Amino acid sequence: MKMVPHPDWSQLVATDQSGSVLKILDGTLRAIGSMGTRRLSMSDICESSGVSRGTLYRYFTSKEDVLAAVSEFVCSSFERGIVEAGEGIADPIERFRAVMRFYGRFTIERSPDGIFEVEPAFHLQFLRSHFNRHKAAVARALGPVFDYFESLIGTSIDRDAFCDTMVRMQLSTLIIPATPEWLAIWNSTPDRLSEWALQIANSQTDHKKG
Which positions make up the DNA-binding region (predicted)? Predict the structure, then answer.
């Protein structure tokens, strides 16, 4: 059987009316969180996913295929989701808020508890290999926000450094879980940066008047 190319897994999930593919991918994530990848078998994936072996082998020929699909699915879901989170929101600060809320929620929902205690190598490899894609997705989602801030302060922002810092900060919660207090700070970032930009803009206006 010809395998579906990994970049198409996210699309396949969206069009799979039976929901089997999503069950398999979500079940695999749960299984990885409890037993890691080394001991994981196709039988374990079936049990965790609640699908038959026939259904599993309809889409995957090996555990390695499943793991590759899971990695690509998580990454492509993030890329699509964070961009969609801000789409259609004209107000730049509201867009910023929506993107930040999505990012915080996605990291919590898509990261099994104790992933680094159970299977550090698999997850470290995933994070390292997908880091730049995550950063690029954040940059796309926040493009209009950066445009707004730059128009206020009258100078360019180092967008790459900003997005790099954002991704690294969010990934740190996989090691030290986010507390409600930390999430409150994370979600308040748009308002804090907006205040900062407005202060600079007002200062520049006062300077010109003086």
Answer: 41-60
Q: Tokens 């099994």 — which residue? A: 112
Running DSSP on this structure, what letter comes out for residue 142?
T
- The C-alpha atoms of residue 48 and residue 29 are separated, in whole angstroms, by 9
In this predicted model, what pLDDT tens digit does every residue of 143-170 receive, in sequence order? 999 999 999 888 899 999 999 999 999 8
CB atoms within 10 A of CB 201: 15
Tokens 């940059």, located at residue = 139
CA dist 140 and 79 (Å) reads 9
3-state SS, residue 58: helix
- The tokens 């037993």 sit on which residue? 35
The CA-atom distances, in angstroms, between 105 and each of 14, 48, 173, 183, 205 are 20, 23, 11, 9, 38
Cα angle for residues 178, 85, 105 (degrees, 5° grid): 20
Residue 98, amino acid: A
Question: Whole-prediction pTM value?
Answer: 0.81
The per-residue pLDDT for range 74-133, each reduced to its tens digit, is: 888 899 999 999 999 999 999 999 999 999 888 877 765 555 555 677 777 878 888 999
**What domains sit in the chain, N to C, each tagged with a CATH number?**
6-209 (1.10.357.10)
Question: Could you give the CA distance from residue 194 to residue 161 in angstroms, rounded to a whole number?
Answer: 18
